[in-house]
Amino acid sequence: SEGRVEVYYNGDWGTVCDDGWTDLGAQVVCRQLGFSGPASLASEGDYAAGQGFILLDDVACVGTELSLLDCLHSNWGQHDCSHAEDVGIRCSPESNTVMDGSLGPPVRLVDGESTKEGRVEVFLNGQWGSVCDDGWTDRDAAVVCRQLGFR
Questions:
Q1: Dist CA 71 CA 62 (whole Å)
Q2: N or C: which end of the chain has fewer CB within 10 A?
Q3: What angle do CA 73, 50, 66 make, to 5 degrees?
Q4: CATH architecture of the region 107-148
Q5: What digits encode the pLDDT tens for the residues 109-148?
Q6: CATH class of the domain whose range is 2-92
Q7: CB under 8 Å to 32, separation ≥6 — which residues?
């Protein structure tokens, strides 16, 4: 329920720079991981510095996003940081509803007028792809909404 934030991009895991981060960004990441309680930023140096790529910088979340990648951010790999600035967060473990992966691949909604609507995409083999609507029903939509944390 806590630690250094890393993202997977182009086949590699990398860290996220803490420039511009607030508790709102922490809330988005915790919600994306399945935690529904309060979230907070860790102090710089609370967790070991990452190694390898620094993939994101200047992340700015408003707090309602379903995914960290829905927040404004710099271009992939573009940063002015060192690993001493890797962002760390703490999610509230009491409300932990982390899914063990049995629900399948990660899902997101894109290109909607709000974070609660849009085209359904799934993350497989390191990339996001659209889901075909052949045979799609309201029941399928309800499953996706539940998986995204909407009750």
A1: 7
A2: C
A3: 35
A4: Roll (3.10)
A5: 888 887 788 888 887 766 778 888 898 988 888 888 877 7
A6: alpha beta
A7: 66, 67, 68
Collapsing DSSP states into helix, strand and coil, what is residue 89?
strand
Cβ within 8 Å of residue 126, ≥6 positions away: 8, 10, 11
Residue 12 identity (one-letter amino acid): D
Question: For the chain, what are the domain ranges?
Answer: 2-92, 107-148
Entry pTM = 0.62
- The CA distance from 7 to 98, in Å, is 17
State both tokens at 30: 């915790």
Spatial distance between the Cα atoms of 134 and 131, rounded to a whole number of angstroms = 9
Which are the contacts of 55, defined by CB distance < 8 A and separation ≥ 6? Answer: 7, 9, 12, 14, 15, 16, 76, 77
